[in-house]
Amino acid sequence: MNRLRYFLLPLMVLSCIDKHKSDAPKVTVKPAVEHNLLIEADTLVLNLEKSKINWVATEMRGIKRRTGIISFKDGFFLIRNGEIVGGKFTVDMETMDATDVPLHENIARRNLLNHLKSDDFFNVKHYPLSTLELTSVHQTKNDSLKISGNLTIREVTKNIDFFAHQKGDNFKTIFTFNRLDWNIAYEGSWADKTLVDKDVELAIKIRTE
């Protein structure tokens, strides 16, 4: 009886922990689409200082939550008759940073970021840039857009569908993607409590010049 109690107690504790579960919609993933950016349109360049990407990842089926930021290198929208018809955005993977580890915990922050930038995850040394090239944009409501785009990470390119909102010079979207679809394949283990969940949440805000 005592053995059964010792076995069940950790499970009961784990079941009581408040797990993180993203409410962001998952992207639809399809094969990459051939697309020509050389179309007749005006260009709106993003404001690097006022544009940002927040990321959320989890471990142990949502028990542990990791958060961070990453910066654009450059980007632009293509505009025709006042509507977005395309665009391309480049992310500088070296700017990846963590926000869930306090700044004074230098060793923990360095170990985490080195691991994220290693070949276990994004291999930033060999794949320093990630890109999103918009292949189609459809306005669904006054400020809502349905967007398709070729997302390239680690030189793996796949087309994704997601929804976004545009109001004036501001554009924002939030979605999750399965990192395994882009060969970001580190799993970790239950034994050392580093099991890494497959979904990554991105919250993107873009301000144009």
- Number of helical elements: 2
Ranges where pLDDT stays below 50 over 5 or more residues in a row are: 4-17
The backbone outline, from C-alpha atoms, is globular
Strand order of the largest sheet: 3-4-5-6-7-8-9-10
* Rg over CA atoms: 20 Å
Strand content: over 45%
Give the SSE order as H and E letters.
HEEEEEHEEEEE
Largest sheet: 8 strands, antiparallel, barrel
Helix content: 10-25%
What structural category characterises the helix and strand content? mainly beta
Query: pLDDT average, as an integer?
Result: 88
Strand tally, please?
Answer: 10
- Straight-line N-to-C gap: 68 Å
Features:
globular, mainly beta, 209 residues, 2 helices, 8-stranded antiparallel beta barrel
Overview of this protein structure:
The protein has 209 residues and is mainly beta. It has helices at 2-16, 106-116, and strands at residues 28-31, 42-45, 52-59, 64-80, 83-98, 129-139, 144-153, 156-167, 170-178, 196-207. The longest helix is centred in the first third of the chain and has 15 residues, at 2-16.
Task: Present the secondary structure layout.
Blueprint: H1 2-16, E1 28-31, E2 42-45, E3 52-59, E4 64-80, E5 83-98, H2 106-116, E6 129-139, E7 144-153, E8 156-167, E9 170-178, E10 196-207
Antiparallel strand pairs: 1-8, 2-4, 3-4, 3-10, 4-5, 5-6, 6-7, 7-8, 8-9, 9-10
